[in-house]
Automatic annotation (TrEMBL):
It is found in: Cytoplasm. It comes from Aeoliella straminimaris. This is Argininosuccinate lyase. Keywords: Amino-acid biosynthesis, Arginine biosynthesis, Cytoplasm, Lyase. It holds the Pfam family Lyase_1. The keyword Ribonucleoprotein does not apply. Pathway: Amino-acid biosynthesis; L-arginine biosynthesis; L-arginine from L-ornithine and carbamoyl phosphate: step 3/3. Gene3D superfamilies: Fumarase/aspartase (C-terminal domain), Fumarase/aspartase (Central domain), Fumarase/aspartase (N-terminal domain). Belongs to the lyase 1 family. Argininosuccinate lyase subfamily.
Amino acid sequence: MSDKPWGGAFEQPTDQLLEQFSESVSFDRRLYAQDVRGSVAHARMLAAVGVLTDTERDQIVDGLVKIGEEIAAGTFEFKTSLEDVHMNIERALTERIGDVGRKLHTGRSRNDQVSTDFRLWIRDSIDRVDGLLKNLQRAFVHRTTLDEGAIVPGYTHLQRAQPVLAAHYWLAYCEKLQRDRQRLADCRGRVNQLPLGTAALAGTTIPIDRQMVADELGFEGIVANSLDSSSDRDFALEFAYVLTQIALHLSSWAEEWILWCTTEFNFLKLPDAFCTGSSIMPQKKNPDGLELVRGKSARVVGNLQSLITLTKGLPLAYNRDLQEDKERVFDSADTVEACLELAAPMVAGAQLKRESIAAGIDRGYLDATTLMEYLIAAGVPQRTAHELIGKLVGTAMKADCRLADLPLKDFQAAHESLDESVYDVLGVERAVEAFKSFGSTNPDRVAEQVATWHEKLK
């Protein structure tokens, strides 16, 4: 049992089946940098409270830093028999500096050590994802300049509804991504609480200074209850949920752009560099990047469901089930980061097919609502105006023409208040200009929002 940090009371070696079944170093080795950082801070604190001498502290810190460098360089040998990344690093340290290395684990357990490393990793991941979200927002804001003045159909139920500026459409995604960033920031505050020093479940008799460790590692606070410290993974589930929401937003965007790229819509051209072809049909340019963004969202959703199921019935305090949390979180973070890295250049490099959109923009009676509100402004009740304009739309449909092409007599037959000024609100350009409310697609309102986003994303 010499390889086991817990083998003193055992008379038989671990069965190889259990050893292979229970190891986690094959996936938790990616926590090595966080484990080294946490252990360095712990060692410095132990020296500050008199558990280690300054010489012992320096030996431990130097040894840990060198081990971290070897792992980063790919020259460190991990052993499955040592179970996880934490014991691999500690055993290597002890082999190099002797019994001094055996003092490092004073005042902590693997339970609070794992939770600390995981929180540090998630915190780092949150910061990376936030940066990628910001890059994607910048790509959308850049499009507002490229597509200035362009009008596209807005849809509800995937049916043409009202006209909107393309810039207004791009900024809608900025808003969604901003809420994702806000959720990440909110999540980060709960992740950023130090569990180290609560030990196995009840604390420690060693006179440790948890605040010192928290300060060195950049934690905003300290977990206050030792039973709670290592038993819960709500911080990981919250992160997994935020990643899921990001994935859902990306999937929705990908679905819409897949439609826009079809011959039927013909609104958008993707860069060839982000498309693939067919092995049999030479004319095909398939939006595989978008389809994979949409498809990979299923992995992220599934990982969240796995984590919820994993933690739904665990008693206090630590249970080995929690070893299963990391692969799910790692995969969700990796997947979302990969999707975001792909999304930004796709958004930046796509071309809006303005001529194609403009050629069909008048289909669908996108100015009907504006005409209805023109009647409302003249004193007609909304429900009455709705019915009257509906009949006018029916008349135009039978004549196979736009509302703006109807003769004045048809408008006057619908309501006596309608005169030649009705043509001032018809057509998509006039309809867009007629909007007034804050948050609308009115060109002045959109320009204000574009300026706001440029300021936010500096």
